[in-house]
């Protein structure tokens, strides 16, 4: 039995375009072939989670059933009542599988959990989002099939972008007219080729060709600078890894968005020139956007409202600082329970807090110059702060210091 | 927007791109010869692209370059390095360096496939390090790193059913690279079982070979001249006329200046980078249990000998020593090292390979080694004593007689020789 990883090889693209043709022709004629699309999604899910990865496939099926029941039960409850405790429980139950999957390697010495599968995080984000929006009353009805279609939407299943249910559902039901769809196809073709450039040319250049070289050089300098390993090659590793991370992930995201477009779904973009950010807050509005917006809406904002409602902390500045800390710590833990992911979270929380302090300071002191040069400096500084955070994120320091 | 026109606008460039890419990749093209400047750069570049590719290696050998096959020692480029001496004194040969840290016999066996026919009845130099002959032999990670799909496909397509090929196939199947493509894996499995490869395997691998060959033709010419510049710069320190005693003087002077921060006569920069501090303390006595006398490497080496025989290549083997001071410190047994050397030499002599520069007893000579296990300065000059006459003088006729017992597990583990 074959197993194909999403967007990995030219064969995958040939296969997916071939199978998509009927859907594309259908959409041009204003029709969505629901049955064919379901079958098609199934085939690609089996290709991704079948063969040598069949355990993941089983885990995926179990997970989907579990989430449908969790969200479904909460939906039925919410139709009648709206108390806090059941809501909190629904969220906790919905994230339990993800928590198990993330914690297992940390306590079992790197062993992966049996209930894990590629993309469990992204499915969980979507499930939690459903519960939260039901709580708010912005999602009123629950259709198990529509929910399954949403969380299993295969172009984005492995690593996002994270869509929102209402947006997705609207696109699914409302077929774009011919002109609009043509424009979407046009964009899709462009994104696919941009993705090729990003992932297979630049990502390959930085990740496969350059990264091993700088990694090797940096390892040779382990004893440099009083045995801290701080060296020029390490700096080289930092920049090379940052470029690799961006081009690889942005390339992948472009593929996911492009295939969504071909299926008539306008999945939101994930990146918007992140390295041109003027400050760290700006960065999080441009980098892995669907994730950071999810965190903003469902962790940062919720947490802020919660604190303000209960008046635990009066000072608004303190509230937002605490909220940043919680927000990025959760993000750190979500990446994985290792010291470097957690430090990565703390680092970004600190950067956001410092950034806020600076912006307030700047507002108060009107004399601080603002021109092309200060903007250039801001971009340069932000870029380096980001790259340093990616060096932490890469886990290379762990290898350099402790292995 | 008109639908048809709109679609053409979107898909036209895509179709054109595909047609162009397929044409470039699958139609055999020569992409011409590379310039002699590129050959010169490639010969000392130690670049992976050159090593894994075929075009430039083969062309350079056709144009008279001599392969110097080995591993990490080739990168020890001081002014006495073989490439430097050959260039400075306009010797009748030009070394083409093949090998980097971790390239052992089995890596070379596959990587050389495409250029073998160019080497028929020619000469080459092969530096065989006793350090290769560990219990595991070739490290799979290193094999992966140096694995050349292009050269390996060349072997698969032409592999007859012989003991050597069956052995090579079995070895290849123990490496992760063999499983990188399903077709490759099943074809190699066939060879290992003594069966011919199927028509469809041949067709598929043939297509892949064309594609990889075109890639090689397009990209391997972009090779860094960094090491060539280094060598050219180094030569300024050599006397204009070849003079052995003067060379030893200069060599010892350079070495003395460059090894004065440690008691092992190890190059300062190497010592600072790799050993200083905790590392060197941890290594005291750490190699006492090292044993190179039992290893699959002996049979991997036999694969190379088998190739030398098939193409009737005259080979000078160089067996380097270890830095004696360092060996004493780490507890590496000189007795074991000599036994290893005897076993290698036995395997060579038994089959008619008599050109051996056996330096295993020279590890204690001053400035012979650049660091722990790598030749440098005076060591290179000693190598030159064998290399120069071997390559520039006419050699007596030679005849090999390959013995397949050296492919056996029994020989790998044997202590009788």
Automatic annotation (TrEMBL), chain B:
This is Protein DltD. Pathway: Cell wall biogenesis; lipoteichoic acid biosynthesis. Keywords: Cell membrane, Membrane, Transmembrane, Transmembrane helix. It comes from the Bacteria. It comes from Paucilactobacillus suebicus DSM 5007 = KCTC 3549. GO terms for biological process: lipoteichoic acid biosynthetic process. Belongs to the DltD family. The chain crosses the membrane at residues 7-27. GO terms for cellular component: plasma membrane. The keyword S-adenosyl-L-methionine does not apply. Pfam families: DltD (PF04914). The keyword Transmembrane applies. InterPro entries: DltD (IPR006998), LTA_DltD (IPR023896).
